[in-house]
Fold this sequence. Notes:
The complex is a heterodimer. By secondary structure, chain A is an alpha+beta fold.
Amino acid sequence: MKIESKSGSSINNKTGGWRTFIPKVKIEKCIGCGMCAKVCPEGVVFMNEVQGNKKKPEIDFDFCKGCGLCAEECPIKCIDMNLEEK
Amino acid sequence: MYRYEFRRKIVYLKKLFNKIDNFMSKQILEGSHAIAQVIRNIKPGVVSAYPITPQTHIVEDLAEFIANGEANYEYIKAESEFAAASIVEGAQAAGCRTYTATSSQGLLLMLEVIYNIAGMRLPVVMTLANRGVSAPITIWNDHQDAMSARDTGWIMLFAENHQEAVNQHILAYKVGEKLRLPVIVNIDGFLITHSYEGVLVPEIKDIKKYLPNYNPKSGEYLDPENPVTLGAFASPEFYLEIRESLHKDLVLSQGEILNEYEEFKKVFAECIDKDKKIEVDNGLIEYYGNMDAEKLLICMGSVAGTVKETIKDMNNVALLKIRAFRPFPKEEILKNIEGKKEVIILEKAISLGFGGILASEIKSLINFSTKVKNPIIGLGGRDVTCKMIKEIIDCDCFDKEIFVAK
């Protein structure tokens, strides 16, 4: 087994594997305020244009740790934290 | 006419001297001196060690070789065993052959680095002059220090006498560098390190025939041209697999030890003990005595010599000496235990709160109908005598560990 790692390869370490709970956004309910992107400690929530001109959140699950801050802070509670089965 | 005769004599003498020069000669050496000499002949690139009784003479000799200009490795002074282990770890990671030696408390201080060296697959070779551990403070021999490094991922060899210690160091470099596994060669403190015995130390040119230069592959060592990280962070998805592969490689190294020892026997035929009573002699174990004996003694290290002296005239008792404790030679042991009515496991270490360590591992292999005796002997340098071994063979003390002293 190759155990040496090349420089600059830490991006290959998909730390999303540490997650226990996974956030799920109800896109149709979302008002696009962008609070979740602002509070995310990992910076993995991106506000992208998906429907019309409203910006909706997209989450990079390779690095999301499932802390639940986005769900806690969402003003209309449209993010659910579900137990992730692996 | 006279001049012709004279010239012929000189030619004859020259041939004779050449022959003597080529023939390895036996020297009476202290165990530490013999080991230091063989390390010098193996030609490591970096040596770093912190002196501790009873390993001191090895380190002293290696420093003296440098001071006298007899060797050309880098001797790096360390401020502690932790530093010494870290220095050889770094040097080996940079792609050169290294050597260190320690004992007892020194090994305990090194322990964190010991795990790292194995995890990074760096083939460091270390001599461990076995000594008991504190408290109460002791400088004398037993195997309790070695047992603390049992689960670290190193190959662990145990030597019975000076010659075997010398042989195992050469074997250690060959096997270790081939499989990228570190090796500890265990020698009994004082009993081997400070006693004198006839020993053949192979010369540089003979070792060269057996042991090639250390050339790690590109990308497996630290090199500014081809930068890599060794022992980097592994997330839970990878760690289990990396440990599994280390375990499997360690188990599979049994085959390589067997093969390399056979090769060793061919190249260094004079270095092998040719006692007629040795029935099985391979890299992992040695079997001494009748193959159909009913009682089997099992031990490691120098106590095997005492046992051989005791049982040499007994037909019903045999000795199984374990040379490689890690990887644990399960098949080899099972093969030789089969059909024995009684197994006596002589142990120089103890897992406090449980019992014999070697005994527990052997008991896990054999069935319950075999009777097992587990005497704990020689802790902290207590003498082990032939009379004691005789009493142990004759006594009726099965299943529970017993502490035997003269």
